[in-house]
Amino acid sequence: MTHRIAIIGGDGIGPEVTTEALKVVRAAGVALDTTEFDLGGQRYLRDGEILSDATLDALRGFDAILLGAVGTPDVPPGVIERGLLLKMRFALDLYINQRPFVGTAPGGTKPHEFVVIRENTEGPYVGEGGVLRKGTAHEVATQGSVNTRMGVERCIRYAFELASSRERKHVTMVHKTNVLTFAGDLWQRTFEMVAAEFPDVGTAYNHVDAACIYFVQDPHRYDVIVTDNLFGDILTDLGGAVSGGIGLASSANLNPARTGPSMFEPTHGSAPDIAGKSLANPIAAILSAALMLDFLGEAAAGERIRAACADAIAAGVGEPGSGSTTQIGDEVAARVTC
Ligand code: IPM
Ligand code: MN
Description:
This protein is of the alpha/beta class. About 40% of the residues lie in helices and about 20% in strands. The protein has eleven helices and twelve strands. Strand 6 (about 130) and strand 7 form a beta hairpin. Helix 1 crosses helix 9 (about 285-295). The protein is globular, with a radius of gyration of 20 Å. The two termini are about 15 Å apart. The structure holds 3-isopropylmalic acid (IPM) and manganese (II) ion. 3-isopropylmalic acid binds near residues 81, 85, 233 and 267.
């Protein structure tokens, strides 16, 4: 079966790493029918398009979207992030951001394996708030966090369903219920209600500040973590840093209800400082493509790609100075068994 995939290489190192991800997917024997979309900061600077409704409608027709990275220093912060990346997350209802972490924390000896389920369509990302008396001494800026019962519940339920399919069957909720008492209470009650439906799944709760300590000192305690949009954003950068670096961190923006395509992208950004130099590690993009294959019903191929990446990493591929972006892609592709 051929999968129809929209490719958004984007800005900076995005196109380079996406090319390698596609190379490895093809080496795994999966047939893709790809269509490239020229979107991102560079496109915006050229003709003003960020993500028009027509382009969004075109994207809806695909089985999945593979994205490299978007954002360029030539465009003010927020324009492309809100107008392209977050617009896709909201408009396509990609309510789960799934980020798996496998590795050994710096200074540690024991490998960990856990996955963060980040709510992806609510919280402070909604853009609730505004500004008054801008630029004056009396300026007021507010930025709210929107948490709906439906949004919180579908995210937590996804985390429990995932945990019940895993060996350790454990979910930790991360929040800040001691300070964010309104949103925290909604999250806490919803967590307890959903947990009651999964008696074979163990549970724990950590405040987000404490979770930062455990990520570094005792990440082995985690199996599945479920958390809100902003905490999840911050925690998953830390997750990358304790799991071999952000160059390995993959992510899936999922619409589990499958009312449209899901989107797959590395957790890292466009890294304009190293763009075009073939210095980027494409493994995060390759592992994101493996998550895409899982979601498209090609889990065996996804597993072969993860094994090839693990083999390559064990052989030192991807370490600084070990080779160009293209060479790293070739090394992984050569290790994929069909
Ligand atoms: C991420 C990124 C985005 C986010 C930015 C680019 C808007 O940091 O995917 O983690 O904050 O979600
Ligand atoms: Mn982030």
